[in-house]
Amino acid sequence: xxxxxxxxxxxxxxxxxxxxxxxxxxxxxxxxxxxxxxxxxxxxxxxxxxxxxxxxxxxxxxxxxxxxxxxxxxxxxxxxxxxxxxxxxxxxxxxxxxxxxxxxxxxxxxxxxxxxxxxxxxxxxxxxxxxxxxxxxxxxxxxxxxxxxxxxxxxxxxxxxxxxxxxxxxxxxxxxxxxxxxxxxxxxxxxxxxxxxxxxxxxxxxxxxxxxxxxxxxxxxxxxxxxxxxxxxxxxxxxxxxxxxxxxxxxxxxxxxxxxxxxxxxxxxxxxxxxxxxxxxxxxxxxxxxxxxxxxxxxxxxxxxxxxxxxxxxxxxxxxxxxxxxxxxxxxxxxxxxxxxxxxxxxxxxxxxxxxxxxxxxxxxxxxxxxxxxxxxxxxxxxxxxxx
Length: 388
Description:
Radius of gyration: 23 Å
CATH topology of the largest domain: Cytochrome Bc1 Complex, Chain C
Order of helices and strands: HHEHHHHHHHEHHHHH
Distance between the termini: 71 Å
Strand content: under 5%
Structural class: mainly alpha
């Protein structure tokens, strides 16, 4: 009788109960595991604020910039929606990057969680595409010239490159058709991200969460609620406070001032800079002077990320027990920070050569260090000294 009257035991709510309330989680996971749920919160913020912004935005080259100003000045609460959406994108990337770095450190991509990692990289790729398209919509100087530079890269693809650029632009230059297409895609893609996120969660719950020890924990588990829900809430509150601080006091810190200038095809900015979360990719792209080579390098970046579960050969998951890999991991983090800084700098010496060296380390880490170090560790684990 008591079970029948329990709300969470009803068929309608049993899925929520099994995957949120009573979901068994390893007892030793730390605060870094809270960034996954926090990413879902920021995805919800982006979708909700985006829906309300779309009600007032006009995807027309003559009206897009003015419609954004209308939202900021005339729509009640419009300034809050616009700043929450713009800063929310930055914080969404911060949270997702921290989530990825945690997975890299603790080896959360190892067997049997390959699908979990691959779906996560797919979410990152979709986020980058969505954010780039969204960056174009305000139709400021950086929006226009960023779109011109990035979309023209497709022309480097042999045979079909020019046709792809014409299809993206909807003509022979960036115009109304481009803006309309980008607006439609920017509205659609977050819902695709949400769908892939559901696949990501399903893959997570199939084999359970990893843990800092990197072992298969099937015994020492406790319910997600209340233990880890409360623990995650600490991370949520901390990040929402930081987010609110930027939203209300420094809303333009993460943007570029040139984007408050209306797009002018006749005036090229002295230095085209994308949003900060693209900078590491942008630095790798421009480190290769050949356009096709740059596009191939970006493709290789995501090939490395997608295939990481199969490149890694180590039987040890957590970097806590891989001292040499831990040093290489922190070098990778420093390398990505260096690439982000290089992406803000002009295309001149010494920034070009530094960017090339940093790009080389990124690929060497995934294609050389990860597989070879795993083989070396396995050999040491199974090494048996000869008995006299």
